[in-house]
Amino acid sequence: MTDEDRLAFRFDCGATWLNLLATRGRHFSAHPVERLATPGRLAEWLGRSELQPARPPGAADLAQAHALRETLRPLALAVAEQQPPPAGAVAELTRFLGESADPVRLVAAERLLREPPATAGAALARIARQAADHLTGPERHTLAVCPESDCRGVFANPTGRRRWCPSPSCATRGRVRAHRERRRTAGEGA
User: Fold this and answer.
1) 18-25 contacts: CB < 8 A, separation 24 or more?
2) Does the pTM of the predicted model rise above 0.90?
3) Per residue of the chain (190 residues), what is the pLDDT tens digit?
4) Could you tell me if 166 and 157 are in contact, meaning their C-beta atoms sit under 8 angstroms apart?
5) How crowded is residue 65: how many other Cβ atoms within 10 Å of its Cβ?
6) How far apart are CA 17 and CA 14, in angstroms?
7) What is the DSSP string of the chain?
């Protein structure tokens, strides 16, 4: 896998806030992959997520994005695994949501649009609200966790048919491991 592949943004997790979690790959491995390493990369990710702020993000915005992501991760894992959420993460997300005022203003164009966020912080607040709605609403039942121990990526799985996160490497590793286990067990039974 090339560096370009490792650092490529993921937009296949089922919701913008879940895609934010995927900006840090192999989170639980010894060598996680940081895809939001600079304010420029954050600007690129926000733009591709249709949340391009009027003012480009800076270092403080990048730190805020990382903090929001790492606040959402344990909440997402807890909800997907039907466990009690960590109180500290709940308090942090509640604080974050209370600090931002980003009223909804719609724009009639070639399609219905929401006015762009003024700042990266306002964009992150929209993501936080989306996460809170998903984590507390009926869609929370669609959340699944990748079983790969170094990934444990959370993704939307509305059909319940997905076994791994959308990352092809997780599915490949899982299938290879299952195939080897079947061959090993078949060899023992012979």
Assistant:
1) 18/76, 18/154, 18/155, 18/156, 19/49, 20/65, 20/68, 20/69, 20/72, 20/127, 21/69, 21/72, 21/73, 21/76, 21/153, 21/154, 22/153, 22/165, 23/65, 23/69, 24/69, 25/151, 25/167
2) no
3) 577 777 899 999 999 999 999 999 888 889 999 999 999 999 999 999 999 999 999 999 999 999 999 999 999 999 999 999 999 999 999 999 998 878 888 999 999 999 999 999 999 999 999 999 999 999 999 999 999 888 899 999 999 888 888 877 787 776 777 767 778 787 776 6
4) no
5) 24
6) 9
7) --HHHHH-----SSSHHHHHHTTEETTTSSS-EES--SHHHHHHHHHHTT---SS---HHHHHHHHHHHHHHHHHHHHHHTT-PPPHHHHHHHHHHHHH------EEESSSEEEPPPSSHHHHHHHHHHHHHHHHHSGGGGGEEE---TTT--EEE-TTS---S-S-HHHHHHHHHHHHHHHHHHHHHH-
Q: Which amino acid is residue 68, in one-letter code?
A: L
